[in-house]
Write a structure and sequence with these properties.
heterodimer; A: mainly alpha; Fusion Protein Consisting Of Minor Coat Protein, Glycine Rich Linker, Tola, And A His Tag, Chain: A, Domain 2; three-stranded antiparallel beta sheet; 54% helix; elongated; B: mainly beta; Rossmann fold; Neuraminidase; six-stranded mixed beta sheet; 3 helices; 32 strands; 39% strand; globular
């Protein structure tokens, strides 16, 4: 037993241990070496990363996949209905004569109240009002001017009638304006219904414009192409659309003169 | 007070200026226009009504062998072309108010014995075709006019001369001229198809035929399986794959050949062990894409039309196949099918960037054979959905997918519609359908309407390709 004890390896194993310990020196050296080695490896890796860039690892987000069926065959593509676009109204929205009041308002707040804040606010408001008023005035003036210019040529009589109105602005307020808007919309859809273009011109990007003159029953008295598309077949579609669309809806009584004298310009398609 | 007033005045001036300038566009109407302006909006697009009376034979009855047969061929060809164009509807011949056989080809006031426009207006006809032909020995002279009836004007008037045997070509040329005159675009009526067709001996050979299925001509005789033909961009050469015999190995291999149609000369382009197939020419005409399976899984390669500089464009992922390449018309993108996601789907990659494949189809069980439209905006493909294949088109990014076909076989089961290819004008799609029981060629408008069968008979057709413009 003793022998075997004496022969047991623990002693020789124990022996090196103290030898390794001899002091802080050994530990420090090994630590230093370890640190140096680590640094070396790090440096190598860094260098490699810098000089030999590897393929970037692409991490993609997981995607939820729904199983989708293929679309069915459409028996027939639904005819594309172009919506009736609200046509631009040359008539401005005219509220009952705000114009004369405005200059006063602009001037008034200035006088009694020096505080700049309120003045600013008022000024802004005033500006806005003036802005809209000016636009209205401008639009009305333009309407009148154009109407007058157009009228001057053909006949004197309608000019007289129009001149007898109190003011063109007031003629397009309230019910008259509603009538007008409604009527223009009805003309739009009325013409559109009759306008067929050969499908071989589908991508030709052509457009033409025509002015029509209506009598009080909506019959076309006269039509005049003011802008040709340059394609006789396309132009013909426009002319025959007008032909087929006549008679037009009866114009509102108040507007008969405008339509008879100034006419309505139609843009195909715009 | 003064400064404020000044500001106000300034503002007023400014806004007045604005108001004026804002009014400018509205005033920028045509001189003489009205102040009330209505935009009518988009028109209703309609097919035009056209009157197409029989063509007059103007020669003496004895001058040619069978003039009426030629006349019928001319008429049938023009009539079919105009019908397929989808631009026209025909006036019923029994509604005609004058006998076109007894009036001249030109309108009456100018030409004696001419026809009368007033007889055509009440029919609502927008266009009138009047044509006549003469045959002298073997020369066919075809004189044809297209009139715009509402304005009593001639739109097109031409005289064509050709060999009698080329009557169909003459007719197609006239139809092309009509389309060009009316739309400004080229007509596709002189284009052709190339297709792999079964023979009586159970083999498949490559055939070239007119787009309407007429004049089929066998161009290969490998007495083997020849398949997957493709047109070069100039339409003078085709490439195809045939199982050719390799004497050394005593085996057959799917090799890639090119073939010059005019001369009948043939070149062996690629003969790597395995598949060398699915050729698609690049727009430059100097390179082509093909599928090669020598590396195990089929991948897409690019090489010159001489078979040199073979470069792999796809590689894996492991075990995945990448096949059926098709290059966009501008050469920037390649569409192909791949099963890298499990089942075959359509992918698009940049032609210069291997790492960019992007899956664009997610619907259905199996999508294959992508082909670009000539304008590069759409891709047509065959999609398998539950029981059968159908033809679909979609935008090049995979959106806005529509189904073009849906048909039943005589036994009531759904038919397969496969192997699509766009016409050179992009308005039609060619495909193979087994709805009649055998695999025949069909065409359909690019919107899925106006489907027509163009080959008949007992032979099966595989992988047809519509040629580029050939005229």
């Amino acid at each position: 037993m003793n022998r075997s004890n004496a022969l047991k390896p623990p002693k020789p194993y124990d022996a090196p241990r103290p030898a390794m310990d001899p002091g802080d020196d050994g530990l420090g050296r090994h630590l230093g070496m370890s640190v140096a080695l680590h640094l070396c490896v790090l440096a190598l890796l860094t260098l490699r990363a810098v000089f030999y860039p590897t393929e970037p690892l692409v991490l993609e987000r997981a995607i939820r996949v729904d199983m989708v069926g293929l679309p069915d065959k459409q028996a027939k593509l639904p005819p594309t209905k172009a919506e009736a676009k609200p046509e631009p109204k040359p008539e401005p929205k005219v509220e009952p004569k705000p114009e004369p009041a405005k200059p006063d308002k602009v001037v008034l707040p200035d006088k009694p109240k020096p505080p700049t804040d309120s003045v600013k606010i008022n000024l802004d408001k005033a500006k806005a009002k003036q802005d809209s008023a000016l636009k209205r005035l401008e639009a009305l003036r333009r309407l009148e001017a154009e109407a007058a210019a157009n009228k001057a040529k053909p006949a004197a009589a309608p000019a007289l009638v129009k001149g007898n109105e109190l003011s063109p602005g007031s003629s397009l307020t309230g019910i008259a304006k509603l009538e007008n808007d409604g009527y223009l919309t009805s003309i739009d859809s009325h013409v559109k219904r009759h306008w067929d273009v050969p499908n071989f011109l589908a991508n030709a990007n052509l457009s033409a414009s025509i002015v029509i003159y209506l009598d009080e029953r909506g019959n076309v008295i006269k039509k005049r192409m003011v802008r040709s598309s340059g394609n006789q077949i396309f132009d013909q579609t426009v002319l025959s659309a007008i032909e087929k669309a006549s008679p037009f809806p009866t114009p509102p009584r108040k507007l008969v003169n405008i339509f008879m004298v100034d006419g309505i310009q139609l843009g195909f398609p715009e | 007070m003064k400064p404020h007033n000044l500001t106000a005045a300034l503002a007023a001036a400014l806004t007045a200026g604005l108001a004026l300038s804002a009014a400018q566009p509205a005033r920028a109407q045509e001189a003489g226009g009205s102040s009330i302006y209505i935009k009518v909006g988009e028109a209703n697009l309609k097919r035009s009504l056209i009157a197409l009376p029989a063509f007059q034979y103007q020669g003496s009855p004895s001058a040619a062998k069978n003039p009426l047969r030629v006349g019928k061929e001319l008429f049938d060809t023009v009539s079919n072309d105009l019908a397929v164009s989808n631009y026209f509807e025909f006036v019923n011949q029994s509604a005609f108010l004058e006998d076109p056989a007894k009036t001249g080809l030109r309108p009456a006031p100018g030409a004696t014995g001419g026809f009368d426009f007033e007889k055509w207006k009440p029919l609502g006809a927008q266009f009138l075709v009047r044509a006549g032909y003469r045959i002298l020995k073997n020369e066919l002279t075809f004189e044809a006019y297209l009139y715009f009836v509402p304005q009593a004007k001639v739109v097109l008037g031409k005289t064509y001369k050709a060999n009698v045997d080329d009557a169909r070509t003459v007719a197609h040329t006239f139809a092309n001229d009509i389309v060009k005159e009316l739309t400004g675009q080229r007509g596709m009526f002189l284009s052709k198809l190339v297709v792999s067709r079964s023979t009586d001996k159970g083999q498949k050979e490559i055939f070239v035929m007119d787009w309407d299925g007429a004049n089929p001509k066998q161009v290969t005789s490998h007495k083997s399986i020849a398949q997957s033909p493709a047109w070069a961009p100039d339409g003078k050469t085709i490439a195809y794959t045939a199982f050719a015999y390799h004497a050394k190995e005593k085996t057959r291999n799917a090799d890639l050949f090119s073939y010059e149609l005019a001369t009948g000369r043939r070149w062996l382009l690629s003969f790597k062990k395995g598949i060398n197939s699915g050729a698609a020419f690049m727009p430059d005409g100097k390179h082509l894409l093909l599928t090669v399976s020598s590396g195990g899984n089929p991948d897409i390669y690019r090489m010159t039309v001489e078979g040199k500089n073979v470069i792999p464009l796809t590689n894996g992922p492991r075990g995945a196949m990448n096949v059926e390449p098709s290059m966009s018309p501008d050469g920037s993108k390649i569409a192909f099918s791949s099963d890298r996601s499990g089942r075959p789907m359509i992918y698009v990659m940049d032609s210069g960037n291997k790492a960019s494949p992007k899956r664009i189809t997610f619907a259905g069980e199996y999508n294959s054979t992508p082909r670009w439209s000539p304008d590069g905006k759409r891709i047509v493909f065959a999609g398998f959905d539950k029981t059968h294949f159908d033809i679909f088109t979609m935008n090049a990014d995979g959106t806005n997918m529509i189904r073009l076909t849906s048909a039943k076989k005589p036994n009531g089961r759904m038919a397969d519609n496969e192997d699509p290819s766009f016409s050179p004008d992009g308005r039609h799609v060619l495909f193979v359908s087994n709805r009649t029981g055998s695999r025949q060629l069909f065409i359909v408008n690019a919107d899925g309407e106006n489907e027509r069968q163009i080959t008949f008979g007992r032979h099966d057709h595989f992988k047809p390709q519509w040629s580029p413009f050939l005229d």
